[in-house]
Design brief:
alpha/beta; Aspartate Aminotransferase, domain 2; Aspartate Aminotransferase, domain 1; pyridoxal phosphate
């Protein structure tokens, strides 16, 4: 409560990565549903957050499965990626999982029992017509032959269904938005394409169950039938060829039933689940940025000028502002940093590769944005930068010096130590002195990352078109 979406997502990602760092050695697979089913009533994941979760898992060697048993085969309604099919959200959102699974979306046969919000009197309209159809149901629905035949027909004609799915989404979207507003937060409705849902927003499950029972009775009286989800709410999974106007009429009736239910429940706002905001609730706490340049004393000014003279990126980008609050620390740190960046056995190309890996691992936006330009100047190829921007290993040649440097770096960032194999490869590539220097570079730029993250130091030269909270996203494309 009182937390905007960006802060909530950041906190969730931090907790998730901390969990992976603690238990990653016990995890074989990360299984995600880009758009949930009945467990959260068709709620879509925030794409950027889900992509960050997946990148964090893959960076730690954990395989990722995108389970699109509900939203796959175009039901999600998202626009296809350039040159893509639009079949799966994993493709449309560039999630890059290792495996995609699907089932319900390709073949079902339970008809009106699970096919979304429809007029009960019109249930016969759900029978497959000469042009075929697509509707969500239990996988195979007890008839694998029908499911497979339906699935084959759907795959052959899916491109032609995309406008229908878009029309369904356009018909339902304003009704859902109106329901959210009219309920005052007592209903949390959401979705996209031909997959929608809503939850009764009481924090107590027993209260949601009571609301669901009342809601079912009202829907029966109104002659509409959504799929009632066990957690307390509904789901809509219409056929791709449902008439949008007829469907919208049924969904409006269902939304009215939901409104009547929450009014009957009479829930106070204090018992409702919190909703995300756009940050109007409380201004963010101002973080210390260091002494103003015009107020620097003689010692601070000398250190500032030394940094500005010796760094290609200058003294106004990076962690130096907060460090200058303690001149002895700032001087020691900037000298250590100068050595790590310019005076080790690593080439500038190798050093910048290591720095980008550190910046991504610690999700340090300004460290990334400052050094991605330096990496390009040093000759690091775009495909390697794109891999680092996704938390993935660059495609360096097997057995190469760069591969060894990256392996040691990734080990340190993920496990806080190195395996015998990677240690041996690092020593073979760099010798013992070089290994000491590589570990020092990783350590120094981790210190930089912690500084810029703690004090929320932005990059003053970052382009307005770049996401300041995740600038690596622009380089991952």
């Amino acid at each position: 409560r009182g937390e905007d979406d960006a802060s909530f997502h950041g906190r969730m990602l931090e907790g998730f990565t901390r969990y992976l760092d603690t238990y990653g050695h016990e995890i074989g697979v990360l299984l995600v549903e880009p758009q949930w089913g009945s467990s959260v009533a068709a709620m879509p994941w925030p794409p950027t957050l889900l992509k960050a979760y997946i990148s964090a898992a893959k960076a730690r060697g954990i395989a990722v499965v995108s389970d699109e048993i509900m939203c796959g085969l175009g039901r999600h309604g998202a626009e296809p990626a350039p040159g893509g099919t639009g079949c799966f959200l994993a493709e449309c959102w560039d999630l890059q999982p290792d495996i995609v699974t699907f089932g319900k979306s390709i073949g079902g046969g339970a008809g009106h029992l699970l096919s979304g919000a429809v007029l009960l009197d019109g249930a016969t309209k759900l029978q497959s017509g000469p042009q075929g159809t697509a509707f969500q149901s239990h996988t195979y629905a007890g008839s694998s032959a029908r499911a497979l035949a339906n699935g084959a027909a759907l795959l052959n004609s899916m491109e032609s269904w995309r406008p229908s799915v878009r029309a369904i989404g356009d018909a339902i979207s304003p009704i859902v938005a109106e329901l959210n507003e009219a309920s005052g937060g007592a209903v949390i409705a959401h979705g996209q394409g031909a997959l929608w849902g809503g939850l009764f927003a009481h924090a107590d499950r027993a209260a949601r169950t009571a609301a669901n029972l009342d809601f079912k009775k009202r829907c029966a009286e109104a002659r509409v039938l959504p799929y009632f989800v066990p957690v307390g709410g509904f789901m809509l999974t219409p056929r791709y060829d449902d008439d949008p106007q007829e469907l919208a009429s049924a969904v409006k009736d269902m939304a009215q039933c939901a409104l009547e239910t929450v009014r009957e429940m009479g829930w106070a706002p204090s018992v409702l689940l919190p909703m995300g905001t756009t940050s109007e609730t409380a201004p963010p706490l101002s973080r210390y940025k260091g002494p103003a340049e015009e107020s620097l004393d003689t010692t601070q000014r000398a250190i500032f000028d030394e940094i500005d003279r010796t760094r290609t990126t200058g003294a106004k980008r990076g962690p130096y502002g907060p460090w200058l609050a303690s001149p002895p620390l700032a001087d020691a740190a900037q000298n250590f940093g100068r050595i790590c960046r310019y005076e080790t056995c690593l080439t500038q190309r190798e050093a910048e590769m290591v720095i980008l890996a550190v910046a991504y691992a610690h999700k340090a936006p300004s460290e990334w944005s400052v050094h991605v330009g330096e990496a390009r100047k040093a000759g690091l190829e775009e495909e390697h930068i794109a891999a680092l921007a996704k938390g993935a290993p660059p495609a360096f040649a097997t057995g190469s010096r760069e591969a060894a440097i990256y392996a040691v770096t990734a080990d340190l960032l993920e496990h806080k130590r190195t395996s015998d194999e990677n240690y041996a490869a690092g020593v073979a590539a760099l010798n013992e002195k070089g290994m000491v220097e590589l570990v020092s570079v990783v350590g120094y730029y981790t210190y930089v990352a912690l500084t810029v993250n703690t004090f929320e130091i932005a990059d003053p030269l970052l382009a307005d078109s770049i996401n300041a909270k995740a600038p690596w996203e622009a380089d991952a494309a």
